Amino acid sequence: MNQEEITAHVLLAKNGSSDSFCKLYELYYKDMYRFAYYMLGNETDAEDVISETVLDAFAGMKNLKKPEKFKSWLFQILTTKCKRQIAVYVSNRQHLADGDESVDVPAEDKPYADHLDVRNAFAILNELERTVISLMIIAGYNSRETAKILNSKEGTIRSIKSRALTKMSQHLKEDFA
Amino acid sequence: MNEQEYMNHIKKQAENVPIPDSISPENMKKMLDEHIASSENNITDNENTKTIYKKKWTKTIVAACASICILGGIGFSVLGNRPSSVKSEGTAQNEAVAEESADSAEPLKGDVTLAYQTTMNTPASYDEYYDTIKAVYDDYYDSYAEVTMEKDSIERGSIENEDVEDELLRKDAEVSSYMTNDLAVQEISADKEKDFSTTNTQEENIDEADIVKTDGDYIYKSGGTWENGVYTNTLTITKATNGELTKESSIDLQTCISKDTNDYVYFQEFYLYHDYLILLFQNYTEAPQVTIVIYDISDKTNPVQKKVFTQSGSYEGSRISDGFLYTISNFADMDFSVKKDYSSYIPSVNDQLIDCSKIYYPDDALLDTTFVITSLDIDSLTITDNKAIPANGGGLYVSDSSIYIYGTIYADTTQTEILRIAYDKGTLSVGKSAILTGYLYGSFALNEFDNHLRVVATIPANRINLLRTEDKAENKADDEELKEDINVLYIFDETMTLTGKISGIAPGEQIRSARFIGDYGYIVTFETVDPLFSIDLSDPANPEIVGRLSLPGFSEYLHPYGDGFMLGIGQEIDPDTQTFIGLKLSMFDIRNPEEVTLLNQQVIEDGYYSPAENNHKALMIDTKNNIFGFFYQEQVAGKDYTYTTNNYYVTYQYDSENGFVETGRYKVDMESYDVDTVRGLYIDDYLYITTSNSITSYELNGTKQIDSIKE
Q1: Calpha distance B360→A68 (Å, rounded)
Q2: pTM of the full predicted structure?
Q3: Beta bridge partners of residue B371, listed in sequence order
Q4: Which of B24, B37, B318, B660 minimizes the number of CB atoms within 10 Å of its CB?
């Protein structure tokens, strides 16, 4: 879908077409799911925040002023939802909240468990690092855009990214060894 | 792996997570429709007016869609998939237009989005640069701010600092104080008879920096040791005479540029150029900068620091070509908060801001970082030129006339931007850049020959809807469902204009290695078997796949071996069970590119990792003297799932009669985390194996150890 077509579908969706909205959603939902999955570390909650995001976004389409910003707008809603969910984990002292616990993968699943390795690598990151890495790698934003989305400074985002990647590489190296 | 490659790696693995059906677009549509239905029950008023309004809107949009298709060419596939509600309401006329455009569209012309160019501008002053870029940013990023939570917009007020301006004026007035006494550069040492290996480089005449170098008499090696919790990083000069090792001197790689041991100094790699050692550092003062230090080593026992150069940014890479050192750094910390604080957004070379006439920005003025390129005349030890140019990513390929900087862009489709900078005797001229769909597996995915740049890229699955062209046109309806990776070859001329391409190479597989030899290109893709494709590139407008050879396993690195042969280093994979068997060497006969044959192969069973697979500098190779060697690790399974790891350096020669002949296998004693720093080199009849803290010498074609020194 090129930018003109996206714009056309956004206009239709603003006007209430669930069909057009889902056409747009189709472009991004896999990345959205991966984003939520690595942010939250579990499938069920990831599915839930996606559903919530879809409902909120569809209802709020009229607030979207620039059609070409649809994707970042969608991810912004999703980021907010994920952060809220993480806050719930923190208050419940659930896993992943501070990244101090990682998800155990049964040894026999290892050879087929690439994404679980990655999930474990995400789990050792703190919330901010995880958000930055998810936005940059899964959602594909550069550091400047990420800084804008998170209301932070670009230099800060870059150093968070580098620190997070170092942590992850150490973790993944252990897994491969 | 650099950071970019590492991000690619994580992204790739992250994509393996299964997507639950519950969130599929179909199910979401159901959910939304139910939601709409339930909320519409609550609406009683305004119902009629709303519907009318809705209809009006959709009609306008259908018209808009149709015109896009005619202009865009690739748009037609979307018409076939547009929302059913639109279809039912569309007028007959619009339908007709759509059909016509779909039929007459030529797919090849349509996919202009495949590769397009951006042009560069140069500002008249730093202030103009600031204004242009800042304005575009504010416009672009304000739209993000609009949708973020309202709060933070207040703290945008800028802090004007008058003192900064004075500071800058003072800086300008300062003259950099470098040593300037010239020493005549001596010719390369006289005794030419010596045979020895040099760093394996991508292009024959373009030198690449590494961690070990030799001139046939001395071994220059950087490395580090831990002692009493203190890490010492040194570059040692060791005399190597028939295997006997004598340490002559060493350079401390921390104190040579900073006396303060708390300063961040990261030694990167170095060059040996006549009587100079050229050392490249990454260090941090207020901001990251690259420091180039030149040592005169005409007296091996007493290396003398001769000159120091600096440039802003993080080290990305360098090359030496024709007596000039080209160094590329990434100035990423551009900060536009204070206009007069030029150094916060203009990079410097030797503490002087880069001149306006050498600063470039793209048409849309949206740049994330700026790359700094300097050229250094090694004979006169002067910087001859510099540029600040926007580019994506820090991948680097240098041919004998151009520097290419490439990087992945994570947009809705994975793209790669390639920027060309032509060079000639130290003078840099910034050319255009092209953006293509797909990612490059490494610098060997690029090659320049006869003024044309050839590039092979892999387009990851889920993102290829726009790219399916002629070969799959009849399956248009299925296009959106394609789940396969696909590979493409692009050819650009020197203006970075696309002259030809082949799309749809090896659907479902990824490029593992590529090598271009003159008019032909060879690529290896992998999924279940290892097809080696030969591509005729002699007509840049019409590249053509002329041959294909399928084998189990794959090659990660290809190297021309004499005339008409090519060596592949990779892995052997069982085609039935997909299990890894061992490292594999393959020799291909490419005398007839249309009928490439496998002459011999050798599998090193239990050999499970060699750095030579993904770092060409870890491979020692001298095809003229028919010798190559590399380090590898062997894992031998023991009882109860335990493994023993052994480290070996192994050397080979090849002849058509006996195939690959192992001429030596040397056990390497080392720390396991150091595997990527092992290098081998040979001088005449002796092999020298270096690790980060040792050099050991052996007789070549034997395993007898002669000498060994530890640091």
Answers
A1: 27
A2: 0.66
A3: B330, B389
A4: B37
Residue B78 in contact with residue B108, Cβ under 8 Å?
no
Chain-centroid distance of CA B177 in Å reads: 36
**Is the sign of the CA dihedral A78, A83, A89, A95 positive or negative?**
positive
- Supply B571's token pair: 């892995």
Do residues B130 and B336 touch, judged by C-beta distance below 8 A?
yes
Q: Which residues of chain B have pLDDT under 70?
A: 1-2, 39-118, 137, 139-193, 226-231, 261-263, 285, 333, 364-368, 410-413, 461-483, 527-530, 639-642, 671-673
pLDDT in tens, A40-66: 888 888 999 999 899 888 888 877 777
Alpha helices in B248-326 (DSSP H): none
From chain B residues 457-476, the ones with a CB under 8 A of any chain A CB are 462, 465-466
In this predicted model, what pLDDT tens digit does every residue of B53-74 receive, in sequence order? 333 333 333 333 322 222 222 2
Residue (of A4, A65, A73) closest to A32 by Cα position: A73
Chain B residues touching A20 at Cβ < 8 A: 83
Helix (H, G, I), strand (E, B) or coil at B408: strand
* B221: its two tokens: 């090696």
Task: Please give the ipTM for the structure prediction.
Answer: 0.79
The backbone torsions φ and ψ at residue A68, rounded to the nearest 5 degrees and listed phi first, read -70, -10
What span, in angstroms and rounded, lies between the C-alpha atoms of B628 and B626? 7
- DSSP letter at B439? B
CA-CA distance, B539 to B491, in Å (whole number)?
10
Give the torsion sign (CA, B386, B391, B393, B399).
negative
Q: What is the pLDDT of residues B640-665, one digit of tens each?
A: 666 778 899 999 999 888 899 999 99
Length of chain B: 711
Nearest to A138 by CA among A65, A98, A64, A82: A82
CB-based contact (8 Å) between B158 and chain A?
no
Phi, psi of B610 (to 5 degrees): -135, 130
Rounded to 5°, the CA angle B47-B52-B53 comes to 100
Structure tokens at B204: 């024959």
Q: Chain A partners of B410 at a C-beta cutoff of 8 Å?
A: 136-137, 140-142
CA distance A91 to chain B (A): 23
Q: Give chain A's length.
A: 177
Q: Give Cβ neighbours of residue B576 (< 8 Å, ≥ 6 apart).
A: none
The residues with which B207 forms a beta bridge, in sequence order, are: B320
pLDDT tens for residues A109-137?
444 446 677 788 888 888 788 888 888 88
Which residues of A are less than 8 Å from B3 in CB distance? 162, 165
Q: Is A138 near chain B, with CB under 8 Å? A: yes
Chain A residues touching B105 at Cβ < 8 A: none
Strands (E), B95-229: 115-118, 120-121, 212-214, 218-227
Q: Do B144 and A71 touch (CB under 8 A)?
A: no
d(CA B409, CA B404): 16
Closest C-alpha to A81, from A103, A60, A104? A60
Tell me which of B144, B368, B413 to substitute to probe the interface with A (most A C-beta atoms closer than 10 Å): B144
Select from A4, A22, A58 the Cβ nearest to the Cβ of B68: A4
Contact B652, B629 (CB under 8 A): yes
User: Which residues 32-91 of chain B have a CB within 8 Å of chain A?
Assistant: 32-33, 35-36, 53-54, 57-58, 61, 64-65, 68, 72, 74-75, 78, 81, 83-86
Of A15, A71, A143, the CB nearest to B54: A15
User: What local confidence, expressed as pLDDT, does residue A87 receive?
Assistant: 72
